[in-house]
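Hi, here's the filled form for the chain we discussed.

Project: internal
Contact: R.S.
Residues: 200
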Amino acid sequence: MTPITTAFELQRTTFEHGRQMFERSIKLHQNMNWALIENIDNQEEAQRQSVELSRKALYTYLDTVESAVPGLASSVEEIRTTVDEQYDTLLETHAESFETAQEEMENGAETYDKVIEEYLEMLAAQTEILLTAHEDIETQTTDAFEQVGGQMEELQAEMETQTEQFQQRFQEQAEQFHERFEKQAKQFESLQSSNESGAA
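And the returned structure, exactly as it came back:
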């Protein structure tokens, strides 16, 4: 693996890691939405129990009044009936409100999930396009560097050939020069010998 391919691979890994982190955060948010919706039942039950405890406390108070004040039995019974009606209405309204809230939250969560799923599908498709383009750029870059590398090798080989040829020509010229020099030296010696013989 070359430094270029390593750099491109690191870029893809970083991009994929970021996309996975984003998808995990989206999934976490979806899970939190549904956990909140599922918790509505617990909240409703807790509030219903609180209302029932309040009714029982009022019953206890009415029982105390009835036993402490003779002759109020009918009046207390009427109050108890009114209290029951009001508490029944309150609990019914309470249940309807929670049911409506839960339905709206579920519809909202389902709509959110649908939009998110569509968005994630689009993101995945765009990611594929991006990664394909990235791989194409990597291929083009690698090919370009390989081509430049090949040209450099060819240039280096050509320079080495030219250097060898130059050295060979230089050596040949040096040898020719040496031969001419020796020939001239011999001619000079021969001429000098002839002059000396003539003078004698």
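Let me know if anything looks off before we file it.
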